[in-house]
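Below is how a single chain appears once it has passed through the pipeline. First comes the sequence as given, then the structure the pipeline wrote out for it. We keep one example in the README because the format questions we get most often are answered faster by looking than by reading.
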Amino acid sequence: MSEKARPIDILLPVFEKGKLTHVLPSAYKADGMIFAVAASPEIPMPEQWMPWMIQSSSSALVDEDVDALADVLMDNLRAHLQCMTDEKPLMPMRCEYSEGQADTAPEIPAELAQWLEGLLYVHQQLEDVWQQAWGKLSAKDAYREDSGSSDTPEKRLSRCLKLFTTLANVKLALQYRNPSQAQQLKENLPLLWKQLPAMVQDYIALAGELSAALPNQFETFMKLP
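Resulting structure:
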């Protein structure tokens, strides 16, 4: 990828063709889903996570379409892994807060909501993987010393997921608050959105700490043909 390219740039041409739009979620949701796969403490095999991407089984896809789609999804996964390794931005640019925007009550873009929705969906699917990694690392009594943070991993993950959930559906988050709390959330949206990249990075860092207890599959997926 070029310096400014993001993993989603691999997916967008597929969606522009339109042939698979009835099969897959939106490009942004798909990218968020694959990000969560890449950030898992133990990356699931393609035959496990690729079916999560299929929104409709009624569409007739020939083998050639299936193979091409699988290649694109794996390329996107590799791109996310590479961005994590190189510590480069991996969220779509449309999902990033721009200082040029108004600093009061910005509209959360639909693309950002979709990206986070995909992330949260896959995190839910992989919750057992996170829990197993947590149990194994906790048994080794290693993660608290290595985390470099006074916050417990549980609190850090909870904070990440809370922010992801809020920004994924601001309307719903407002409904669960009283008028005063809702107004405060509206006023704080710019700040919360600005915090998102740091929270995404902490989510990745947590997965990295937990993966120490599991077989390292990173090289395997980077080298898959």
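Confidence is low (pLDDT under 50) at residues 217-225.

See the next section for the split statistics.
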